[in-house]
Structures are given as structure tokens and as C-alpha cells.
Amino acid sequence: MNVRRSAAALAAVGVLAAAAPATAADPSPSPKVTVPSGLYGKGDPTYDGVWRQSLTLLAQRTLGYRPAAAAVDWLTGQQCADGAFAAFRAEPAGPCDDKVKADTNSTAAAVQALAATGGHGGAVDKAVGWLKSVQNKDGGWGYYPGGPSDTNSTSVVIGALTAAGTDPADVRKSGKSPYDALPAWSIPCGKDGGGALAYQPDKKGKLLPNADATAAGVLGALGKGFVAEAGKAPAQDACAEAEHLTPAQVADNAGAYLGTAVAKTGHLESTLPGAKDQPDFGNTADAVVALAADGRTEPAKKAYAWLEKNAGQWAAQSGPAAYAQLIFAAHAIGEQPGDFNGTSLVSSLNALGPAPHMDSAAHESAAEDEDSGTSVWWIIGVGLVGGIGIGFLLSGRKKRQS
Predict the structure, then answer these.
(1) Is the overall model pTM greater than 0.70, yes or no?
(2) Which residues cross the membrane (predicted)?
(3) SS3 call for 65
């Protein structure tokens, strides 16, 4: 997701490599700007500082942690005077202008994080006010104010509105809400990619299936943000035809598309122009959340199992937002982020910035997830050592795959 919004930002300014961040290249070993204290990650924050910080704080709250004050202060310090957020402000005291341009995605991500953190109602209200002020006449949002609406931006703003306690259906421009915008990007069932959502129409007005936009669109149509739990199973698995799709139908059709897309391999693939297709870890993690939210738990679990086997190196290379995405995926299907194929997503994320604190005793189980894999197998091992020997125990240790 950090990578998704970076892609959207690049696309908005017409950079050919717009989709490249979808596979998340290694963080820059030599940032162009100094990484500020309080910010998670060591990579250059120019294009994703607010995004990765927001996802980090939201993931920590989801796990029951209270983010460090320094981390929250860094995020609130990035807010512009009008309530918006830019991707990164190297000089927070400076203006948000053409050189430091605010965008809907960074703002919406910050709203979700600050709403979850609590105690920042004023900042949240100002940010939501700004988002409402830049809504397009079709009811949606573009990445930058004034730009054409797209599925991803509209969906992340829906998540922000919901997090702030505002019903997205009540946020209208020219009489249209974001739920009027999303069906326009849903590809009809009988066409190639039927059920999927496009990022936005191409230059000829054609809708092309986009897995990233589809995953985002499922959550948007369901009125959910980055954090979601397993929903009720859909009435039917296949794409449903309708002259005027309801938000629920948009979500179910998109969920059916994603379920089919991950059915064979367990993952989505990136399709960069001129490059060989390869597994797309970030979008697969997003798809897990979307599928679970739409009640499609079986394909969601299959995709998560694939991530457990293959996404560890990607997360280590990509940084905080990647770990947060995987934590959201684990949360969506009830898995333990403390045991991700022998690695703790929780410890790995928390080690990249100021240490958070457990919020209360009620959330101790979330913190214990870090050691769940190790502790469970240690207990089993104690019982087995006497009968089968420590060597067999260590070599025969099997990992949960569901």
C-alpha cells in the first residue's frame, strides 16, 4: 500500500515507472533527505513518508500497541495549515505549495492513523474538511486536487471518512457520493476482466482490470479502511450483472475477480510495461484483506499462506509499510503476525522506529503474538524431547499453513 500510493502519485504526474513501486524496490541506502527522528524506516521518505508512518501507526494500534509519542508527533507535524498532508515535508514549518503538494492519499492515510491513535480530533477534522473540499463532481477523488477521480484515491478517502465517523454516503458533490463514483470503474461481467475495477478509464475511455484498484475498490465499496475483518460470505461467487450496481455488488463482483486471480498460484502478479510478470507481494497482501472483508476467506487464506512462504524478504527490503500490509492481512483472517513463517512481523516493524508501548492489559495477547510460534513449539518440544530426542524435534518442526 505504501507502494500503491507511490505508484498513484507517479501516475498522476505521468511518470512511466508509475507502477514500479507496486513490487517495492529496496529502500534507498542513501536517502536524498535526512530521515527525521520519529519517522519509521531508513529509506528516502520523499515520496512515502506520511504514507508509511500512517500505516505503521495504524498497524500498531491494530495489534494493541500505543505508538510512541515521537512517532505520532512526527505525523501530526506534517499536516499543512489547511488540514491536508503531503507525501513528505522536509521543512514542516514551510508552506504546502507547488513544491510540497498535498494529496488525497497521504491525507486519507493520516486520518485513519490519527483516528485510531486517538486524541487528535482537531487534526482529523481539519483533514476531513480538506478532503471534502476537494471532492470531484462525480463523487470521487483524484490523487491531487483537481485531478480526475480514480478508484484507489476514492477508496482510501472512503476509509478515512469512515474512520472519522462520517458516513461516506453523506459526503456529496453535485449530488453524488463516492458510492456513485465506484460503479463507473467496475468492468461489466461479460467483458474481459469482468467484475474487476479499473484505476480509471484509459485515454479511449476503456476500463482495464487493475488488481491493485480492485482490492482497494472492494474495501471502498464496503465502506472500510485498511484494517478489516472477515465479513459475511457473499450470496454468490460469480460476477453479478446489474444495470445499476450497488456498492455491495461492486464489492462482491470485485471479490469474485480477486478470488479467481489468486486461485491458481495464491498470488497476484505485477504487469509492468516491458518487464516480465512477477509476483506482486504488496497487492497480494491487499487482496487478502479485500477478500476477507468480502467474506471470501478461503482464497484469502490461500493467498496469505503464499505470502508466509515468500514475502519475508520483500518486507525486509521494502520497510515499514510492507510489514504493516502483512499485519493487516494477518489480522483480516485471524492469523498471528508474531509468527510469520518463523519471523515476527510485529518485532520487525517496531524495530524500525521509536518503540511503542502495550496500550493495556486487555491487549496483552496481541503483544504475545510476537512469541506465539516460538512459545507454542517450545511447549510441544518439552513434551517430545524425552521420547524422540531434541534433534528430531528441531528437524521435524512444522509450520501452520492455513
Answers:
(1) yes
(2) 375-394
(3) strand
